[in-house]
TrEMBL record:
Gene3D superfamilies: Homeodomain-like (1.10.10.60). SUPFAM superfamilies: Homeodomain-like, Regulatory protein AraC. SMART domains: HTH_ARAC. It comes from Mucilaginibacter corticis. It comes from the Bacteria. This is Helix-turn-helix domain-containing protein. PANTHER family: ARAC-FAMILY TRANSCRIPTIONAL REGULATOR, TRANSCRIPTIONAL REGULATORY PROTEIN.
Length: 302
């Protein structure tokens, strides 16, 4: 499972260098050469991906595969991969001979006010898309140039370098949107296991709820099926076979688990907890909680 690590944890673990002059007003951005980044604990090369902290654009160089819910994309050599924290996937290298480059950035780095685009409206980041693109020799040269220019500008003293880098990120995004996506292998073998694993991963990404102003984004089986690009009936069948529980039951159990945590570990009111968990009515939440636990929220809180 992908860990809910902070950006500081990422740099401590993987040995990357945090840009010294980046600020909260700018948002976060960094770019890496894959062969120079390694896991300090294992000594292995990694292409890390945080649970929900940032977007990532990768130039993959080496044999690997990208696994989405019920689809697998085999990468023979060079490919461009776009990742959003909202759509789960697994990247599996075939061997240790993995090079290339990748950049990470937070949504506020490319906010609408700064870039003129809304990330979630871009086709390449839409649920159901398979944003992995095979590159020919000329495209590799063009993509490599953009990534290396990012790396060069990041170390420069130019006052407006992050505006320039922002334009380079947008250039990568538009470059990808003009490419044809790689074909996906819709394989039955292990598909159910992948769907089950990615569903649980997506479910866990909704938590923890860290503010009474934050609200659970995904509540229904249809919400999860849409994000995983599978039919809701198929998702329910897979989860029932894998866990013995329906999609609704798994979601409900996780919501109750989070409700218990919030009732015991925060001073939020029951109304605030109800809101963050997606309930518009406190009475509805109280009845829901009592049905699942045989206790009222206030009774459980003590």
């Amino acid at each position: 499972m992908i860990s809910n690590s902070s950006l500081d944890d990422f740099y401590q673990r993987h040995g990357g260098t945090l840009p010294h002059d980046i600020s909260k007003e700018i948002g976060h951005f960094n770019v890496f050469e894959a062969e120079k980044l390694f896991d300090k604990k294992t000594g292995s090369r990694v292409m890390p991906y945080s649970r929900r902290a940032y977007y990532k654009i990768s130039w993959l160089k080496g044999k690997s595969r990208a696994e989405y819910a019920d689809k697998v994309i085999d990468i023979e050599q060079d490919a461009l991969l776009f990742a959003t924290p909202k759509i789960p996937y697994h990247w599996v290298p075939a061997d240790s001979n993995q090079t290339g480059m990748f950049c990470i950035f937070t949504p506020d780095f490319l906010s609408t006010a700064k870039s003129g685009v809304h990330l979630e409206d871009l086709p390449i980041f839409q649920p159901g898309q398979l944003p992995v693109f095979q590159l020919d020799e000329q495209e590799v040269a063009e993509i490599a140039y953009i990534f290396r220019k990012m790396l060069k500008e990041l170390s420069a003293d130019y006052k407006y370098k992050y505006d320039l880098i922002r334009n380079l990120v947008l250039e990568l995004i538009h470059y990808g949107q003009k490419l044809q996506p790689m074909s996906a292998l819709s394989t039955a073998q292990n598909a159910s296991q992948r769907i089950s694993s990615l569903f649980i991963e997506l479910l866990e990404r909704q938590f923890p709820l860290e503010s009474p102003h934050q609200r659970l984004a995904l509540r229904s089986p249809a919400d999860y099926a849409d994000r995983l690009a599978v039919h809701v009936n198929h998702l329910n069948k897979v989860l029932k076979e894998a866990t013995g529980n329906t999609t609704t039951e798994i979601i409900s159990n996780r919501i109750i688990q989070e409700a218990r945590i919030l009732l015991k570990q925060t001073n939020w009111s029951v109304a605030e907890i109800a809101y963050t968990l997606g309930f518009d009515d406190v009475a509805h939440f109280s009845n829901y909680f009592k049905k699942q636990t045989k206790d009222t929220p206030l009774g459980f809180r003590g």
